[in-house]
Design a protein that fits this description.
By secondary structure, the protein is mainly β. Helices cover 5% and strands 50% of the residues. The two termini are 36 Å apart. It has a single domain, classed as Porin, CATH 2.40.160. The chain is globular, with a radius of gyration of 23 Å.
């Protein structure tokens, strides 16, 4: 972890030195205010109220990771604790439009987490395809299709091109690629505004679990494979899925946010003054199952079905500090309660640089956090999370943009860990060359590794690992 910290601090020091040098020179330079990149839009009528718009996004990662104990790549042990890789975290292309005064459509194709471990010659896949009709102006639109009008929290459906941190709060995407398609699922939804209350409600048909791209549900080894019943450990059921109910309500005290598409911005960089308090839930009957001993039943085993239920509340504040120089602050905090059933844990490493891992003591069959960069991101229990960022003045680096440092944390207590604290921390720096359209982000993450010593003991944190990611994002 010392090596990773040195790498992070060296790059951070270089960027800061450049910023300080350029700031001193601004006394003799002309102040350059940021230019707005106009949207790529085709007007369908004279006043432009009917249109078709196109957007695109690429996020490329360069990463140095201190891998979890006994990580493997292609079933071979990693020769060093550290791994280096380059990958495409996200690629997106959107086409959407207001076809009439009341008819709106939204489509998106893309790819996630394409790295050296991925299948070659990958293809873009359909992410979103919805259409809705506005029955009551501003108050009620009803639509259907493959979409993300979900809860229970703001970043359950994040606008990935406007994130403040490196990768948002992935834990809020509770079933990501388990019984959905990277948060999307077939649904009918209603959305709108009633005064300052923004609402979304949807009823979805989840995908069959056996069709999940990541069938073990973890990104690494965990408690059994997804859909395979385990003794006293809940997993997602492979039965015909029941309907899933989603809602998220947000009372928007100050500036109102758009709700044309389901994706919630991470930060506005001070272009709006937003203060929201929100909350929501997600529920699916008999989504989970597990085995329970029953001495009175032949074979001694009962199959127990269990609901999937999450509920949360959050607060979001994003506002300018000084309208004259463009400085701004962004703050977000959330609480999430999750009930996936008995002892459920999901280990996940985003675009993991390793594809396997085993426990380094205690023998086979015991729980550990998995290989690579995985950690226990979700589980039955509770999570508190927060992020805070400060955007410096617009002309800090003259024509080179400005900087936005940030900090993030996730604090979880899971049933299977006997509610011992599971804490991750991120600290980072955005170099906003052209806002979200062209930016570099440098992020350091510190995460825990949990391991079970014996079958009768709860897992406990044994070591901590670090990861440095440099991302370049370009979007239009």
């Amino acid at each position: 972890m010392k090596k990773i910290s040195i790498v992070f601090l060296s790059v951070l020091s270089a960027v800061t030195a450049f910023a300080q040098t350029d700031t001193l020179n601004t006394k003799t330079k002309k102040v350059v205010k940021p230019q707005v990149i106009k949207p790529l839009k085709i007007s369908l009528n004279d006043d432009g109220s009917h249109y078709i718009q196109f957007t695109g996004l690429v996020q490329a990662w360069v990463r140095f990771n201190q891998s979890n104990p006994n990580s493997t790549i292609n079933k071979q042990p990693i020769g060093s604790d550290n791994t280096f890789d380059v990958g495409l975290r996200r690629v997106r292309f959107q086409t959407f439009g207001q076809l009439t005064d009341r008819t709106f459509f939204y489509t998106q194709i893309g790819e996630n987490s394409y790295s050296y471990l991925s299948e070659r010659k990958f293809g873009l896949f359909l992410m979103d395809a919805t259409g809705d009709y506005e029955f009551i102006k501003k108050h009620l639109s009803i639509g259907a299709g493959l979409g993300s009008w979900v809860g229970p929290l703001r970043f359950s459906a994040p606008s990935v091109g406007t994130l403040m941190g490196m990768d948002g709060m992935i834990y809020q995407q509770n079933t990501n690629d388990l019984n959905d398609q990277f948060v999307r699922r077939m649904m009918i939804y209603a959305k709108g505004k009633i005064g300052k209350l923004d609402y979304r409600v949807s009823v979805a048909k989840p995908f069959i679990v056996n069709s999940a791209a990541n069938k073990n549900g973890t990104g690494q080894a965990s408690i059994g494979e997804l859909g395979n019943m385990q003794n006293d450990f809940a997993t997602f059921s492979t039965r015909n899925p029941n309907a899933q109910f989603n809602t998220y309500l947000s009372y928007q005290f100050l500036d109102q946010e758009a709700n044309k598409n389901p994706y919630m911005p991470g930060t506005y960089h001070g272009t709006k003054k937003v203060f929201n308090i929100g909350g929501g839930l997600q529920y699916q009957k008999d989504a989970m199952w597990y085995k329970e001993a029953n001495a009175l039943k032949p074979g001694g085993i009962d199959t127990i079905s269990h609901q999937y239920f999450t509920a949360g509340v959050d607060v979001f504040y994003d506002a300018p500090l000084n309208k004259g120089d463009g400085s701004a602050i962004s703050f977000y905090a959330a609480y999430l309660y999750s009930d996936y059933g008995r002892n459920y844990i999901r280990n996940l490493g985003v675009m993991n640089a390793a594809d396997g891992g085993t426990a380094y003591s205690g023998g086979a069959g015991l729980y550990n956090s998995g290989g690579g960069s995985a950690f226990a991101m979700n589980g039955t229990g509770s999570t508190l999370a927060a992020q805070l960022g400060y955007k410096m003045k617009d002309d800090l680096l003259d024509e080179h943009g400005t900087l936005m440092p940030y900090v993030m944390t996730q604090l979880s207590g899971y049933q299977y860990f006997e509610y011992k604290l599971m804490a991750t921390f991120n600290v980072g720096l955005n170099w906003l060359i052209k806002g979200h359209n062209s930016k570099f982000s440098l992020d350091y993450q510190n995460r825990p590794y949990f391991q079970q010593a014996t079958a009768t003991e709860a897992p406990r944190e044994t070591v901590r690992r670090g990861m440095v990611v440099l991302q370049y994002q370009v979007s239009f």
